[in-house]
Amino acid sequence: MAAVLPSAMCMKPRNVSQDNAVTSKLLQEWKVKSPLTPRFSEQVWRRIERNDVTPAVKPWAVLQTWIAQTFARPSMAVSYVTVLLLAGLLAGYWQGRVGTERTAQTLGSRYVQMVSSYETH
């Protein structure tokens, strides 16, 4: 099976130094004949200053960059996921405990109401 060569490899190699010499000669001969507009350089510098303004830093972009850099290191990613998992487990345990205590109080007060209603009859 024959390998297919890219077309650039099949072409005759170019003489780069000869191309550079020709280009250089043409650039030296080239002369600008039309005059520049009034205040041309001033307008150019204004455009450069306008484009040179640094863009405002967006918090979302900063956070996104920080997360991408942090999770690029596997040890940090594992640590972060572990901390989040533990925080979720602790929050679930705490919420379950509060719910259980509330249910126990409710059942206890209902029991007392039921028992006291039998004593008064």
Features:
mainly alpha, 121 residues, 0% strand
Number of beta strands: 0
SS content category: mainly alpha
Strand content: under 5%
Mean pLDDT over the residues: 82
What is the element string, with H for helices and E for strands?
HHHHH
Largest sheet: none
* Contiguous runs where pLDDT drops below 50 for at least 5 residues: none
The best one-word shape is elongated
Distance between the termini: 104 Å
Output the radius of gyration. 39 Å
What count of helical segments does DSSP give?
5
Percent helix: over 70%
How would you explain this protein's 3D organization?
It is a single chain. The protein is mostly helical and 121 residues long. The chain has a domain at 74-121. The protein is 74% helix and 0% strand. The relative contact order is 0.03.
Offer a concise description of the structure.
It contains five helices and no strands. It has a domain at 74-121.
List the helices and strands and how they pair.
Layout (H helix, E strand, L loop, with lengths): L6 H4 L5 H14 L10 H12 L7 H13 L2 H47 L1
